[in-house]
Amino acid sequence: MNFTILNFDSLDSTNTEIIKRAKQGASEGLCVVAREQTAGRGRHGRVWISEKDAGFYFSLLLRPTIENKFLPLITLMTAVAVFDVLTELYDLEPDIKWANDLHVNDKKISGILAEMIETNAGLAVVVGIGINLQSSVFPAELKDSATSMAAESGRKIDREMLLKSLTEKLAKFYDVLQGANGAAQIRDEWTQRSSYAQGKRVTVKLADGQFEGTTRGIAENGALRVETETGAIKIVTAGDVERLRKTA
Ligand code: BTN
User: Fold this and answer.
1) Selected residue with higher pLDDT from 99 and 163
2) Could you identify the atom of ligand 1 that is nearest to the CA of residue 101?
3) Is the beta carbon of 58 within 6 A of some atom in ligand 1?
4) Which residue's alpha carbon is at the smallest distance from atom 3 of ligand 1?
């Protein structure tokens, strides 16, 4: 993939910027990086706090040619790429919490927001990645559940190196996904890296309630299979999955 990288000091949201440019006909491989976002977006309409230089705020434009039913695998493919950056470049030991949160020591270090849009040149996917670089700016309510590259690696993060490694890994796994048998390969890569893939006791929080169960692998399109107490398998395509924590 050919990358074109645009750097900004401040933007509302790197995803929003890419959506605008995709609608104007931008090509696959366009990347937008900002030092700060004034309206950073998370999943489920949440805010992604994006203080200046406290995080890495990045979006990439894709124009995939895979079957539509496999499009959700783009988020899994992205999580695999971020996982490998954290492992290979920073010696961290991350985990992927379904579907696409990266955790280190049970705390969130990175989130992914993939958005699908229609453009004149066809369907496009915007992949947004936020990586926490510094913990100092976390608001009180995030202190227990979030961590950062500085806190976990003890190193100063070189943003250029991070960008280079991230784009290399994204290109690699996007090629895999778009290639022969790509969907199955990405499911395998994801499964190898996530403790949530098999046998994990979880609570699934949906818009209209929640249930508990044990994870039983992922479905063809990346949805999570969860076995409930009655032995039924529920397929989770949206919602939040939380590890069941032992209570005292
Ligand atoms: C989540 O875990 O809820 C997803 C967070 C995604 C945040 C990134 S930061 C870069 C890109 N631009 C945005 O507005 N959001 C994503």
Assistant:
1) 163
2) 2
3) yes
4) 42
